[in-house]
Each structure stands twice: as C-alpha cells, then as structure tokens.
Design goal:
Layout lengths: L8 H31 L6 H23 L7 H5 L2 H31 L27 E6 L6 H6 L7 E3 L1 H4 L1 H22 L10 H12 L5
Antiparallel strand pairs: 1-2
Helix pairs in contact: 1-2, 2-7, 4-7
C-alpha cells in the first residue's frame, strides 16, 4: 500500500519541478552537444548547471518516492505478523524516519543558511536556537553560471551592493533545506496514514506485483 492521501498543491509542486528539471537537463545537454560537435563551440556553464539540476532532481525525488512508496523495502517480518502488530511496527519505522528527516533538515539548514546571510541553528542534534554571531557567506559564487540580469537585486540584498559575476551559491544550495522539509512532510503524511489505518507500511517490496494485479483487474484480466 502506498501513502497517497490524495492529490494536493504540494504534490503538483513536486511533480512539476521534477518534470521541469528533467526537461531542462535534456535540453541543455542536447544544446551543448550540438554546440560542441556542430559548431566547435561550448556552453561553458552547461555542465555545472546540469550537475546542480541533477542534485535537485535526486533530492526532490527522495520525498516524491516516499509519497509513491517507491523506496526499497523489505516486508518479510511485516507479512508474518497480525495487522495490529503490523501497525505498531509501521509507526516505529515511520517514527525513526521522521527523526532522521528532522536531523537532515537541521543539517541542511545549517549548511545553507550562511550562504544566504542567515544564522545556523545552535545545538548538536536538535535546534536550540539560532547563532548570534555567524559568518555570512552571501558573496560566495558558483564557478561558471552567470547571473541573469533579473537577479541583480541580489547584489544589494546579499553582497553589500558588490557585483556578482556568477550566481550566488545560495540559489543552487537552497534545495537542501527545501527538499528535507518536503521529505519530513511526506514522512508525517505516512505516519498519519498508518495511524488512521489507511496504510500499514511506508514501502512494500512486492509493490510491482500489486501494481500488475491492479492493472489486470482494471482491464478485466484474470489475476
């Protein structure tokens, strides 16, 4: 069973971002190949941008896979126990995932925050407040991707008015806290689903068999 409580605005954001990233990665890579072999030229920023997009795709895909129940899972023990015990095991599992996602969210915020001239959190494991003294790193830039004119306002906001030659690192790194917040949200959704009895596990190792059986039932074939 998959944790799918229904389509929502968040679902559409995830799916749209993933589709756009895949499309842009394909388009930029194709354009760079044409430039290199057709015109003996090169799009200097294409490789770095594609690498960043692939990172975004992986991190956003992690939360989307939780929603779809597409992560790898082993359910041998779960299948051997009764439904009440299965529910308890599911709650224990999703509880561990929520704690892990919280730790990832804290770590990703702490890494990204200084690049956005924001304070990291205090505390080794859990946030205990925000740092009072921190080193702002809003002036850090990526290696190759030029700053579009439409983002020139960021020079006053994050770089004391000094000119950016490349985009600031805060832009590609922003996916870290954003994707971890989405991951936490998806695990919380799964926890609600298990608690309410709509699902009994986060993922299932036999999901492909279930999908095939469902398709056959819909098409009227004998399962």
């Amino acid at each position: 069973m998959h944790p799918q409580p229904g389509e929502s605005f968040v679902d559409r954001i995830e799916e749209t971002l993933i589709a756009v990233l895949l499309g842009l990665m394909t388009l930029i890579t194709f354009a760079n190949v044409v430039a290199r072999y057709g015109f003996n030229s090169n799009i200097l920023w294409a490789l770095e941008l594609t690498v960043f997009m692939f990172g975004w795709l992986v991190l956003l895909g992690a939360s989307y896979a939780v929603k779809k129940g597409a992560h790898l899972g082993v359910d041998i023990i779960v299948e051997m126990v009764s439904p009440p015990v299965r529910r308890v095991l599911g709650l224990i599992s999703v509880g561990g995932c929520i704690i892990f996602a919280l730790l990832l969210l804290k770590g990703s915020w702490d890494y990204w925050a200084n690049f956005a001239n924001l304070p990291a959190t205090e505390g080794r494991w859990f946030p205990l407040g925000f740092e009072q003294d921190f080193r702002a790193k809003g002036w850090y830039e990526v290696n190759d991707i030029p700053l579009p004119e439409v983002l020139r306002w960021m020079e006053d906001a994050f770089n004391d008015g000094d000119e950016y030659e490349k985009i600031p690192r805060m832009i590609p790194y922003m996916v870290l806290p954003f994707s971890m917040a989405l991951l936490l949200f998806r695990f919380c959704q799964a926890a609600v689903g298990i608690w309410s009895g709509k699902i009994d596990r986060i993922v299932a190792s036999h999901e492909v068999e279930d999908e095939i059986a469902e398709v056959r039932e819909q098409t009227g074939e004998q399962v």
